[in-house]
Amino acid sequence: MTTVSVLASPSRYVQGKNAIAELGTHLKGLGRKPLLVADDIVWGLVETSLSAGFRAEDLPVTRVGFGRFTTPAAVDALVEKIRSGEHDVIVGVGGGSAIDAAKAAGHLAGVRWASVPTAASSDAPTSALSVIYTEEGEFIEYRFFPRNPDLVLIDTQLVAGAPARFLVGGIGDALATWIEARATERGQGTAMAGGRPTRAGTALARLSWDILWENALPALDAVRAGVVTPALEAVVEANTLLSGLGFESGGLAAAHAIHNGLTAAPQTHGLTHGEKVNIGSVTQLVLEGAPTQEIEDFIVFTTRVGLPNTLTEVGLSPQDTKELQAVAEAATAAGETIHNLPFPVTAEDVVAALVVVEGLARRVRAEHGLPEPVKYVAQH
Ligand SMILES: [Zn+2]
């Protein structure tokens, strides 16, 4: 049995309105020849203030574009760019994919790496791991690195200007963190950082949860208005820093394993990471036999936030026996984090929980006067 505990964290975390203008200042201690990874849309948003900050620090601005998913080929292409351009630090700017690709490439090329998320859409930016997908967006593997990013910088004005759906996804990802860390702590599970969860990791997962219940709805109001408020600052920290430290050093369990299983169902393609994770969270609560009130509160709250909590909203139905079986088998594969639950879980258990979630969430929503779920149709 593992007896050590590990806390993994980035060396520096910087958050605030217009923080992007200070990226050069925080980066210059890490390298003199940065390679920025950002798609065209993200680059259009950050180029002016980022470049001014780089000029002030005498840093060259070199940017490479990025596709949709963190695929093995995309990572290898970035490694080649780092080598041919002799870059000493790689900076992932934008969503989770560019950031995960930059981390994986920085590790392979042996240079430092930094994360600059432009939305608070997942907790990927702080961690020492990347999730690798196929060209179609199906989960392939986790890649683990010996170091976290040297720098994570998030500009809350950019978050306020990003689509509200991105923040909704980040909230779904961060809510799962406490549900999963709690289960890992209760059982004999291991955290992603290795070893048993640290008390710090578990406590930060809980803090993230508490902040979200208090601030998620007003933070979404702020994003819809395009402005930064204290509630938005709190949620950005919960989604990015606290959830990141909480999942990595507190442990993942069923919610993310079920997310990984859902990526194999083409019906779910196009949904955000956090949207799929939320189905995993509700399913985990059912699998655990969590108190009825707790499950109902979670359904009511996540419906208000705008997260899916029925199969319908991720393009599936309880009658999709074949798909649900495939999701459950992937979720319960050997080595998956679902086995951090403090009891044995089979694919059959997961199918049963997934099937129950549909009727349960529909009933709770109806009882609270909340809208019926709308069928999600993946765009191909
Ligand atoms: Zn996640």
TrEMBL record:
Tell me which residues bind NAD(+): 39, 96-100, 118-121, 127, 129, 133
- First and last residue of the signal peptide: none
Which pathway does it operate in? Polyol metabolism; glycerol fermentation; glycerone phosphate from glycerol (oxidative route): step 1/2
Q: What EC class is this?
A: oxidoreductase
Using the record's annotation, list all stretches that form the Alcohol dehydrogenase iron-type/glycerol dehydrogenase GldA domain. Answer: 10-156
What this protein catalyses is: glycerol + NAD(+) = dihydroxyacetone + NADH + H(+)
- Give GO MF terms, alphabetically: glycerol dehydrogenase (NAD+) activity; metal ion binding
Tell me the cofactors it needs: Zn(2+)
Annotated glycerol binding lies at: 123, 173, 256, 273
User: What EC identifiers does the entry list?
Assistant: 1.1.1.6
- What are the entry keywords? Metal-binding, NAD, Oxidoreductase, Zinc
Domain of life of the source: Bacteria
Q: Quote the Pfam families the UniProt record gives.
A: Fe-ADH
Relay the cofactor remark from the entry: Binds 1 zinc ion per subunit.
Q: Which family does it belong to?
A: Belongs to the iron-containing alcohol dehydrogenase family.
Q: What is this protein called?
A: Glycerol dehydrogenase
Lineage, opening ranks: Bacteria, Bacillati, Actinomycetota, Actinomycetes, Kineosporiales
